[in-house]
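In response to the reviewer comment on reproducibility (Comment 2.3), we provide here a single inverse folding case reported in full, input and output, so that an independent group could reproduce the run without further information from us. The structure tokens appear first.
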């Protein structure tokens, strides 16, 4: 895939995320062998394991804000910068922070994704 093809896939994925269609987007854009990780944590390997992890996040999250800030694509690599504001019942308090998603694409699917962020509690 060239950069233009990857950019189109990234833009479509980001639109689905903004529409709250995260689980549907994972089915469409993530490879069966995807490896996903948060910061420097051990990765979760395989689509099924990542769907389970993501479903737990989605089902326990109330969104207060989500803003797409920047997208960079170079060949088969993309980086997406988001501003997130949410409360997740597993974490216990509202968090707001910038997150960068590093993604590597093969044949139109994400095979590697790592999220970089520093969660910041919101003082209410």
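Designed residues, in position order:
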């Amino acid at each position: 895939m060239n950069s233009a093809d990857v950019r189109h896939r990234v833009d479509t994925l980001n639109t689905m995320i903004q529409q709250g269609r995260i689980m549907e987007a994972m089915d469409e854009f993530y490879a069966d062998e995807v490896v996903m990780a948060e910061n420097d944590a051990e990765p979760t390997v395989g689509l099924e394991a990542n769907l389970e992890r993501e479903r737990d996040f989605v089902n326990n999250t109330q969104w207060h804000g989500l803003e797409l800030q920047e997208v960079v694509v170079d060949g088969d690599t993309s980086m997406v910068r988001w501003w997130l504001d949410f409360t997740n019942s597993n974490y216990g308090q509202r968090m707001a922070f910038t997150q960068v998603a590093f993604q590597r694409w093969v044949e139109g699917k994400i095979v590697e994704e790592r999220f970089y962020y520093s969660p910041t509690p919101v003082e209410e």
